[in-house]
Amino acid sequence: MDGAFTGPRWLMRVSSAADGVVQHGSMGHGHEPSIRSEAGALEKERFAVVITVAAVPVRRSGDGTGVLDATTVSSAAWLAGSGLLGHTWPAQLDHSLRDDWLEQQTETAFELADDLDGELWSTLSLPVDGEATVFHYRESEFGWVLAGSPGGGVHIGAYGRGMSAYGLGFSAVEDLSQYL
């Protein structure tokens, strides 16, 4: 998020290809999300996680023997949707059923990400490095997800809870070392 956000930030997961090239990474803002399902815990959390995905039209498999799908704005939407799910489950859900629920919801997130122009998504214009960018946006009972392609060789996905997506702005982080 851009400099208007003054709360805590932390570097999350970074995914690299077999050759060491970073494919995507994420940075959290606000409270660190938990997977606590106690009543009221989710309402107290205020966070947004921003995922940056390298726009790669052709990706080689890790062993170099094949080609994988290109990364698209749908890739960013799926990473954001599955990221939100990773920090959420219904409070009434038994812990032993969580894996089944998560698998089902992750498949749903994939299907939703594959239909960004469908009726379950709306659009939202937010600044990326000061330039207005159109994002696909969706809310659920667990939080919100958005995804867009600002150019510059990246796609952006984000998810959050307790913070409004409508007031977000995005900018490049110049020095990640302070978050390591």
Brief sketch in words of this structure:
The protein has 180 residues and is α+β, with helices and mostly antiparallel strands.
Write the layout of secondary structure elements.
Elements: E1 9-16, E2 22-30, H1 41-44, E3 47-54, E4 59-60, E5 67-68, H2 73-86, H3 98-113, E6 122-128, E7 131-140, E8 143-151, E9 154-161
Antiparallel strand pairs: 1-2, 2-3, 3-9, 4-5, 6-7, 7-8, 8-9
Helix pairs in contact: 2-3
Q: Can you offer a commentary on this structure?
A:
- This protein has helices at 41-44, 73-86, 98-113, and strands at 9-16, 22-30, 47-54, 59-60, 67-68, 122-128, 131-140, 143-151, 154-161.
- The chain has one domain (9-179).
- The strands form two sheets. Strands 1-2-3-9-8-7-6 form a seven-stranded antiparallel β-sheet, covered by helices on one side. Strands 4-5 form a two-stranded antiparallel sheet.
- It is built from three helices and nine strands.
- The chain is globular and about 40 Å long.
- Helix content is 19%, strand content 35%.
- It is α+β, with helices and mostly antiparallel strands and 180 residues long.
